[in-house]
Amino acid sequence: MGRKKLPFHMEHWQFISLLLGIYDAIAIAFSYIFALLLRFDLQFSQIPSSYYEGYKKFIPFYIVICLVIFRKLRLYNSIWRFASLRELENVTMATAITIPLHVILTVFFVKRMPVSYYFVGGILQFAAILAIRFSYRFVLLERSLRKKKEPDATHIMLIGAGQAGQMILRDILRQKETKERVMCIIDDNSNKWGRLVEGVPVVGGRNDILTNVEKYKIQKIYLAIPSASAHNKRDILNICKETDCELMSLPGMYQLTTGEITTNQLRKVSVEDLLGRDVIRVNIDEIAEYLQEKVVLVTGGGGSIGSELCRQIVAHKPKRLIIFDIYENNAYDIQQELKRKYSYLDLVVLIGSVRDSRRIMEVFEKYRPEIVFHAAAHKHVPLMEYSPCEAIKNNVIGTYKTAFAAMKYGVNRFVLISTDKAVNPTNIMGASKRLCEMVIQTLDRIGNENREYILPVVHAHSDVDSRWSEDMKMRAGSSHTRFVAVRFGNVLGSNGSVIPLFRKQIAEGGPVTVTHPDITRYFMTIPEAVSLVLQAGAYAGTAKESRIYVLDMGDPVKIDTLARNLIKLSGLEPDVDIKIVYTGLRPGEKLYEEKLMNEEGLQKTPNDLIHIGMPIPIDTNEFLTELEELAKACYENSPETERLVSEMVPTFHHKK
């Protein structure tokens, strides 16, 4: 049988509140009798009887008034171990209300008392009420400080003596369960040097980090400057990573504005932080305008880029989101994530291949998407070198079939996710993506000229009804599907990215394999790349011809530097704890990537991080004829496939 609940059960905090109320009553009574004693040289016999009788007559009523006001101001509801400025304000407000009431009520209804009685009594009342409440916090703080001075306490360096840094420091000081001790603070503001924050010295700026890490035997560094620019953070972190300390950082300004900064908001510094990229800003209104209440299809929607596209598209409230992917596990994962977060979303998840004409046509006919983001593709350079026909089938023919269906069913915008590997490609994957760009450029021109009827039915979908009904011709002719490509480099954390590989190799104790000490790549995070893809999609609505939007990826990064930074961020030393081995360039791999071909020129857009690469003229009829021949060859797994690709992409210089 369960324990019988007592009829007058009292929670612990309610018991503490009762004790506080009793204390307050005694403190108030004492404050004013002591003020009266002080007025008459601490001699009770010298107090005039009229004053003493007035005090005795009024003080019980005053105590009741004070307790009611204190309760209204919630002085008995706060958790005093976390007492802060808000609690101080409440006590001050209570005193500011009760003392004038004391003066008014005694003067008009009891007896006018000496001025010092009111003045000294009010001060004593305020001090007594405040002292008991904050003493609990000070006792805990002192106990915490003694605990954190133990020999096994973790030594912390805090970077940032501003508001965020102070919040982190206070949170560490009041934690009983952790043995962390902030030994010193770093701040670039020289006005703070040599001063103390909560008893912790500010020892200098960023140039003093290494010296003080050694001096104070620092084990962890907390970076608490969320308002600093990305470049400033990068410079500071580049100094910190030269130490053996674990690095933690606040992610951004949000917690600062909400006043919620604690050590729980700190996260491990990632290699992305060392890129020093400024926050990418896009025009939310423009993106929302073309996505809101639209039926949006994302091919390859379960992949790293495709799934992030889905996440960001949902934020702009589409009428329906269709995820199309051949890999069911990825599709299932993003489906469950979106269903949890957006229960209202009209979400359709379909399994299928962009190479399957019947499936593609079925999807477009049934769901009639208005916006298509085509992210489905094979992307692994070395794997595609050994399976060139599969690269062409999936990337080139898959893009053609999807774009063909988009034009046939009157899609408004078709956005192809391309890559900087399409520029002067040295591998079959890059060449296939260049062909994808040429496909959409060709279809865009044909649409502008209202010559949809010349589009061939490429291999393996000849049994699909490709006839253009009058209704379809009218819809396609009136909508002029806008075809654009968005070209960008490597995305950190995507499937096939070097970062997950390096992390796995480090976890296994090494070695970390880098193909060449001088190999460089452009990098961007997945959310950054996708936000710019969506912005480019907005610009596509005003484009008169097919465009290739080129994203500004910042400065190129050496893969060797990336690997070494990742090892250091893991608290290890490159070539000592973890060996770095150079394995040589893989088949088709370049030392560096390019953003534009020689024939292309750049134009500006309203966003400084998005540029327009002008399309290279293509003979439409010749390209379509060659595309039919290429499709036939790759579906027959012909060795002639690579030769045909070389003829169609003049800038393709294959490195095997």
Descriptive tags:
3 domains, 7-stranded mixed sheet, single chain, alpha/beta, 656 residues, 21 helices, 22 strands, 9-stranded mixed sheet, Rossmann fold, 47% helix
Q: What do these coordinates show?
A:
There is one protein chain. This protein is α/β, with parallel strands linked by helices and 656 residues long. The chain folds into 3 domains: 12-145, no CATH class; 151-269, NAD(P)-binding Rossmann-like Domain (Rossmann fold), CATH 3.40.50.720; 284-491 and 522-555 and 594-648, NAD(P)-binding Rossmann-like Domain (Rossmann fold). The protein is built from 21 helices and 22 strands. A 9-stranded mixed β-sheet has the order 10-9-8-11-12-13-18-22-21, sandwiched between helices. α1 (12-39) packs antiparallel against α2 (49-72), α1 (12-39) packs across α4 (115-148) and α17 (498-507) crosses α19 (559-569). The longest helix has 34 residues, at 115-148.
CATH architecture of the largest domain: 3-Layer(aba) Sandwich
Mean pLDDT: 81
Query: And the CATH topology of the largest domain?
Result: Rossmann fold
Q: What summary fits the major beta sheet?
A: 9 strands, mixed
- Computed Rg: 35 Å
